[in-house]
Amino acid sequence: MAKNVDIKRAKILEVAKRRFAHFGMAKTTMAEIAKDLSFSKALLYYYFPDKHSLYTAVMEYVVNEMIQKNEEFLEKSQDVEKALMFVLESRMDLMKENYNLFEYSSSFFMQNPGEVGKSLGPFFEKAKELFAKILKIGVDKGELQVDDIQETAELLLFAQMGMKAGILNQEMNDCFFPSPDDFDMILHKQKKMVSIFVRGLKA
Amino acid sequence: MAKNVDIKRAKILEVAKRRFAHFGMAKTTMAEIAKDLSFSKALLYYYFPDKHSLYTAVMEYVVNEMIQKNEEFLEKSQDVEKALMFVLESRMDLMKENYNLFEYSSSFFMQNPGEVGKSLGPFFEKAKELFAKILKIGVDKGELQVDDIQETAELLLFAQMGMKAGILNQEMNDCFFPSPDDFDMILHKQKKMVSIFVRGLKA
DNA sequence: TTTTGAACATTTAAAAGAATTAGTCAAGGT
DNA sequence: ACCTTGACTAATTCTTTTAAATGTTCAAAA
């Protein structure tokens, strides 16, 4: 029974998440995390092979939590537009709460494209698949008409990334550190975008 | 009569454009530009106050050329979707030919947000206005129904930025140096995007 | 199996110096 | 007065070096 190990891993994840979300990946040390848990640095390496794995595990933990909430929502409501809005909102909430967690991913992106493909790519895939799932609901209900669901889901995802990039660029305060207002603005644009997009797919 | 001055400025712009487009802003020196024109570096500063102004002037020169072509197209065809496609295509051509010219703008963006607002912001504005103009054609013809044209144009622009960002991220070769294939892929996605978007605005 | 302190290795940060390049100026040519 | 220039200065970028911080390993102990 590996139960004990799992509990400990969960504790580590919890603490690491707090630090990562607050100060970002770069500015939290393994020593700090260990100290928070009041045990030795070396022990961290007993449970996680390296810092990067720990980071990825935290990401996975956080993202899965959200995905699950989304899936649950999908069970209840079969309304395509509402479902998409819900996804947008929970994504945004997640980013607000754990901004520095993702900040690292974004900036790491631009520097180590090779590595990040394996650790960050999956999250994009998950987001894409979620969109695809929602679109499929619309198609099955005969509400929407789309030839290639996968590709359309990707389009939708990219368009929403664009909203973020667009706002961040034109605000251009400390670039890459969206203010709360920025988040609201991004969400607002994304919603409008989705609205038009879905309308454009109506059968 | 400032004719002579204008001719010289034009010559400088022409040469500077070639170098910037080839090697980018950072890796072309004022000395090189001067040498290409076979006159002294100091003379450049007689016609342009500094390097940044020269760069901006080149950008303006290049972008205006494209905008004008677009406006001409608009005179002929009043078809909204075709007009948008034309804009996308000419934008992409421009980027293919002068990639490093824009590359600098993008990367400068993320570092000196304050400065770039004045030198790069106007180009975004122009693009936005062009989209707005096209959308207005559709509205005037009664084809489209949009409440806020300015905002919708912005949405469209951002969405297209997203296509670029999205493709560049998932290709992740040497990040930020799109291959010719990438350009094609981006254009393809952008066209699909526009298609759906316009359909979503149909009256 | 789990935990640790101490040692090791790798990354980052800062400082100093050299080299490149942006930008200025007084003077000369037209 | 309008152009043009070479030589000068100032600012920036590029190396190199060094020191510090931090990630990672490991033998030994609980």
Automatic annotation (TrEMBL), chains A, B:
<feature type="domain" description="HTH tetR-type">
    <location>
        <begin position="6"/>
        <end position="66"/>
    </location>
</feature>
<feature type="DNA-binding region" description="H-T-H motif">
    <location>
        <begin position="29"/>
        <end position="48"/>
    </location>
</feature>
<dbReference type="InterPro" id="IPR050109">
    <property type="entry name" value="HTH-type_TetR-like_transc_reg"/>
</dbReference>
<dbReference type="InterPro" id="IPR001647">
    <property type="entry name" value="HTH_TetR"/>
</dbReference>
<dbReference type="GO" id="GO:0003677">
    <property type="term" value="F:DNA binding"/>
</dbReference>
<dbReference type="InterPro" id="IPR009057">
    <property type="entry name" value="Homeodomain-like_sf"/>
</dbReference>
<dbReference type="Pfam" id="PF00440">
    <property type="entry name" value="TetR_N"/>
</dbReference>
<protein>
    <submittedName>
        <fullName>Transcriptional regulator, TetR family</fullName>
    </submittedName>
</protein>
<keyword id="KW-0238">DNA-binding</keyword>
